Amino acid sequence: MGICPLSRRFGNRMPRPTKCRRVACMPGVNYYKPAGIPLRFLDEVCLPIEELESIRLKDLEDLDQEQCAQRMNISRSTFQRVLGSARKKITEALLTGKAIRIEGGNFEMASLRCRCENGHAWAVSFDETAKKSINSCPVCQSSVIQQLPPVEACQGHGRRGRCHGHGFDR
Predict the structure, then answer these.
(1) Measured between alpha carbons, how far is 101 from 158 in angstroms, rounded to an integer?
(2) Considering all CA atoms of the chain, what is the largest pairwise distance in Å, rounded to the nearest integer?
(3) Are residue 28 and residue 70 in the same domain, yes or no?
(4) Which domain covers residue 55, as residue numbers?
């Protein structure tokens, strides 16, 4: 009978499974590199999707850590670790001239909330938005639609209906 590699590190205790972090949107670009250097000559740093989300919430939306943690459905201490890891990787890439690959991680997609000009509100799963664009209100067919901030409660899991636990060691 084989020995679990984790049992050597943790004894008879198994670590708790990692909780999926909620992400509101996928990045439009997944790779950045220094200009003028061919890709084949660059080392890269991999930035998981949830780490990019932590940077977006804290630095772009300027939320406090408690609000960020609530949006990502994680504890404040976990948010601090995720944010610290993201900042360290980005700083390393900028100071050492490495490329940044944005992919993988352990995350789930938040649902998209919408409201029409007549006040009807509804949630749309990420799977639905990937299949078709939102053109009109399902109640009154109004074409004037506003996107609302993500809901705090988890609505769905990942792009294909489950948590993404991608490995990203290359």
Answers:
(1) 20
(2) 65
(3) yes
(4) 18-108+160-170
Looking at the whole model, is its pTM more than 0.85? no
Residue 99 and residue 38 in contact, taking contact as beta carbons nearer than 8 Å: no
At residue 134, the pLDDT reads 77
pLDDT at 65 over 50: yes
Q: Is residue 10 predicted with pLDDT exceeding 70? A: no
Sheet with strand 112-116: strands edge to edge: 121-124, 112-116, 145-148
**Pairwise CA distance, residues 70 & 153, whole Å:** 9
Q: Are residues 53 and 72 in the same domain?
A: yes
Residue 44: exposure state from Cβ atoms within 10 A (0-12, 13-18, ≥19):
middle
Rounded Cα–Cα distance for residues 83 and 66 (Å): 13
Whether 32 maps to a domain, the answer reads yes
